[in-house]
Each structure stands twice: as C-alpha cells, then as structure tokens.
Amino acid sequence: MLTLPPGIIFDGTLEEVANGGENVWLPYDRKKLYTNAFIIRNGKLLLGYKKRGFGKGLYNGFGGKVDPGETPAQAALRELKEESGITAPLEHCGVLFFVVPDIDHAFHIDIFRAEEYDGTIIETEEMRPQWFALPNADAPTQDEQKDLQPIPFDHMWKDDVYWMPLLLASRHFLGRADFDTEGNLKKWWFGAVPQTPVDSR
Ligand SMILES: Nc1nc2c([nH]c(=O)n2[C@H]2C[C@H](O)[C@@H](COP(=O)(O)OP(=O)(O)OP(=O)(O)O)O2)c(=O)[nH]1
C-alpha cells in the first residue's frame, strides 16, 4: 500500500513512477485551484514561453487560477483561449500538487490535454506559443518535426520532467512537488494509474 504525499487524494490503485529529495514535505494551510493545458498533435507539443508573473521565463502549458463559480474544466478552456487564442476538447489527465515556501497557499493544478484544437494560435500578453518535437515520434510525423527543438526541460519547472512522459503517453497521473524560494526542487513524488493489462486470451 503506497503512502501518498499530503495533499494528494486518490481512491484507487497507483503505481509509483518517481520519488526523491528530502525527507519531509513542506507544511501548507490551504490550497488554491489552478489549471494547465497541453496540446499534443502530429508528434509535436505546444508550450508557451511565460512572459510575465509567476513562472516568468519558463515554458509551460496554458493555464492559471480557477475563478469563483468556475469548474476546473471551464477554467482550463478559458485560460487556454486567453493565453493562446485557441479552443480544444480538453481531457483531464492529471493532478499536480505544488508547494513553495513563500507563497501562502499550495497549488492544486488540474492538468488537461487535447490532440485537436480550433482557431489560430496567437502570441498573447502572457504567453509566446511554440511547438516542440516529441521524443520518439512515429516516422510519418517526422516532416512536421524537422525544424523543431526537443522539449526544453532545462527551461521548465523542474518537476515537469517526471510527469511529462506520462502526459505524452496519455496516462493518468498524480503527484506532488515542493520547491525552495530559489526555484529548486526539494522533494517530489509522482504516481500513475496502472495501464489495464492487455487480455491475451
Ligand atoms: N508545468 C508546471 N506548471 C506549474 C507548476 N507549478 C505551477 O504553479 N504551475 C502552473 C500552474 C498554472 O498554470 C501556472 C500559474 O498560474 P498563473 O500565475 O499563470 O495564474 P494566472 O494566469 O491566473 O495569473 P494571473 O494571470 O492572474 O497573473 O503555473 C509546475 O511545477 N509545473
């Protein structure tokens, strides 16, 4: 039986995929809801370069705070449109619980993905969108990928490298990441819903 980090609630089986750092999780008093949305299409991943605010200078999916009266799914659609100009049939695929010592709340981030989108991708005040090549994409997509850079993990939140492979593989995942005030990752844990075994009968 796995012991889940404080803040992670899941009623079912999870398989541990990453675990490391210090011994003790940071305390937190309350949490706020956020969203983060990723478009994965034809061997490519759409990220945005964050031009202002929290996480400035990092590449990320498109997202932000869930407003009062909104569901996370509604907020994810609104933030995607506000930050990149597009809409998409977003599907919920994960939860990231994120704690930073000098912020008075923990972040509960619902993570969404889509393989289609509508509209024209535009640069906005907050984000500069850019496509990146997926690792190990299938041969038919390589033309689309040829001028693209790989996913820029060196310029992303330091926990993303642990859960991004799960997102790209359409796995459902949950995890927690604690940071220090300088943006260094201090402790992390990620788990995934086990894949249904293929029935070989
Ligand atoms: N990929 C990734 N995203 C994270 C991590 N931590 C974290 O807060 N985020 C995301 C969640 C949100 O999408 C975003 C923070 O939201 P934000 O400050 O941009 O919120 P917002 O757009 O509502 O803010 P604002 O326009 O009101 O200034 O950063 C992390 O470790 N990895």
UniProtKB/TrEMBL annotation:
Annotated keywords: Hydrolase, Magnesium, Metal-binding, Nucleus
Pfam families, A to Z: NUDIX
Gene Ontology molecular function: 8-oxo-7,8-dihydroguanosine triphosphate pyrophosphatase activity; dATP diphosphatase activity; metal ion binding
Enzyme class: hydrolase
Keyword DNA repair assigned: no
GO CC term (a single one): cytoplasm
GO terms for biological process, alphabetical: DNA protection
Keyword Metal-binding included in the entry's annotation: yes
Subcellular location: Nucleus
Substrates-to-products reaction catalysed: 2-oxo-dATP + H2O = 2-oxo-dAMP + diphosphate + H(+); N(6)-methyl-ATP + H2O = N(6)-methyl-AMP + diphosphate + H(+); N(6)-methyl-dATP + H2O = N(6)-methyl-dAMP + diphosphate + H(+); 2-oxo-ATP + H2O = 2-oxo-AMP + diphosphate + H(+)
Residues covered by the Nudix hydrolase domain: 30-154
EC number: 3.6.1.56
Similarity section: Belongs to the Nudix hydrolase family.
Function according to Swiss-Prot or TrEMBL: Oxidized purine nucleoside triphosphate hydrolase which is a prominent sanitizer of the oxidized nucleotide pool. Catalyzes the hydrolysis of 2-oxo-dATP (2-hydroxy-dATP) into 2-oxo-dAMP. Also has a significant hydrolase activity toward 2-oxo-ATP, 8-oxo-dGTP and 8-oxo-dATP. Through the hydrolysis of oxidized purine nucleoside triphosphates, prevents their incorporation into DNA and the subsequent transversions A:T to C:G and G:C to T:A. Also catalyzes the hydrolysis of methylated purine nucleoside triphosphate preventing their integration into DNA.
Subunit structure: Monomer.
Protein name: Oxidized purine nucleoside triphosphate hydrolase
